[in-house]
Task: inverse folding
C-alpha cells in the first residue's frame, strides 16, 4: 500500500516521499530513504539542541505523581510539604491516564530497581539526568553532535557520539536499555536490536517506545498524523512488526502494548498540520482552550479504547535475553 507526496511539515526538509506498508505485518517505511551520509542534515535544527528549562506549568505536578509511583521523595523540600505532596501524588496516580504518563516518562523503570542504564538515542540527556537523580548509573549514545555536546557539557553526562554499534560496549554491560522514539530513526532496526541483545545483561530489560501506525490518531489524520514525521522517521511500526523485529534479534518479548499518554499532544499537532500544512518545530504555540479540550477528550477516549485494542499513539515493548 502506498501514500504519495508526503512533505516534511515540521522542519522543512525539501522533497516529497511516499510510505510503503507491508500488508502482512503492518510495517511502514519511507520511500525513498535518505542515504546514511545525509541523515545528519535532517537534524540541524532539531528540538533536542536545547534543554527544556521549564517543561510547562504542570512540570512540578508531574514530578510529584512520578515520585509517588516510584516510591522516592527526591522532590520533597520538607516534611510537612512532603507529606502533602506524597498524598496528592498518590491520589492522582490512581487516575489511569495520569499514571500512564508518569510511568512511561521514566520508561517504567521503578525507583526500587537501580543499576547500569544505557539510553540509546539519548538526545540532549534530560531523561538520563532524571534517571541519574533517581539513583541509576547512566550512559548515553547519541549520533547528533549538537545534542551529544549538550548532554556532556550542560548535564555532565557520559555520552558516546555515534550510533550504538560504534560505541564498542562489552557483552552483558547493562541492567536496562531504553530506546524512546529512536528505533523509527535508525537505518537497520533489527541490527540495532541485536546490538542491544549483546550488551544487555541476561536478567536485564530492554524498553522500546515508538509511534504506532495502527493508532487511532493515524486512522483519523492519515498523512497529517504527527507520528509519520518524514523524512526523519524511516520506519513506523505496528505492534506486530515491532514484535517481529525484536524476535528476529533473538530477544524475548515480555510484554507489548500501546499507550495513549501522548494523545493530547498528537491530536493538537495533527489538527494544526491538517489545517495549516506545517507545524514549525513540531511544538504548537499559544494553543486555544477549545483545541486543548479536544486533545484532552481524545486522550481520555483513546485510553479507554487501549484497554481492548492496540490503538494507542505509542507502542511500548519490554524484552529481555
Result:
Amino acid at each position: 500500500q502506498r501514500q504519495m507526496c508526503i512533505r516534511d511539515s515540521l522542519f522543512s526538509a525539501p522533497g516529497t516521499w511516499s510510505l510503503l506498508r507491508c500488508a502482512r505485518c503492518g510495517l511502514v517505511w519511507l520511500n525513498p530513504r535518505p542515504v546514511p551520509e545525509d541523515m545528519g542534515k535532517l537534524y540541524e535544527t532539531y528540538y533536542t539542541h536545547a534543554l527544556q528549562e521549564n517543561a510547562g506549568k504542570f512540570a512540578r505536578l508531574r514530578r510529584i505523581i512520578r515520585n509517588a509511583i516510584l516510591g522516592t521523595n527526591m522532590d520533597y523540600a520538607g516534611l510537612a510539604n512532603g507529606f502533602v505532596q506524597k498524598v496528592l501524588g498518590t491520589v492522582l496516580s490512581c487516575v489511569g491516564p495520569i499514571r500512564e504518563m508518569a510511568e512511561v516518562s521514566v520508561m517504567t523503570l521503578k525507583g526500587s530497581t537501580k543499576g547500569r542504564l544505557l539510553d540509546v538515542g539519548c538526545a540532549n540527556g534530560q531523561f538520563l539526568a532524571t534517571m541519574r537523580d533517581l539513583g541509576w548509573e547512566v550512559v548515553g549514545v547519541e549520533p547528533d553532535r549538537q545534542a551529544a555536546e549538550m548532554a556532556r557539557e550542560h548535564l555532565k553526562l557520559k555520552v558516546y557520539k555515534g550510533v550504538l554499534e560504534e560505541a564498542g560496549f562489552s557483552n552483558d554491560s547493562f541492567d536496562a536499555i531504553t530506546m524512546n522514539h529512536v528505533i523509527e530513526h535508525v537505518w537497520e532496526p533489527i541490527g540495532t536490536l541485536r546490538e542491544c541483545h549483546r550488551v544487555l545483561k541476561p536478567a536485564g530489560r530492554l524498553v522500546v517506545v515508538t509511534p504506532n501506525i495502527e493508532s487511532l490518531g493515524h486512522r483519523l489524520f492519515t498523512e497529517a498524523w504527527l507520528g509519520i514525521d518524514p523524512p526523519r522517521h524511516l520506519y513506523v511500526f505496528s505492534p506486530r512488526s515491532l514484535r517481529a523485529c525484536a524476535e528476529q534479534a533473538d530477544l524475548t518479548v515480555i510484554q507489548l502494548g500501546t499507550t495513549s499518554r501522548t494523545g493530547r499532544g498528537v491530536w493538537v499537532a495533527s489538527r494544526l498540520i491538517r489545517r495549516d500544512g506545517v507545524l514549525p518545530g513540531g511544538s504548537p504555540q499559544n494553543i486555544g482552550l477549545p483545541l486543548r479540550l479536544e486533545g484532552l477528550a481524545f486522550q481520555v477516549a483513546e485510553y479507554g479504547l487501549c484497554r481492548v485494542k492496540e490503538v494507542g499513539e505509542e507502542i511500548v515493548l519490554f524484552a529481555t535475553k
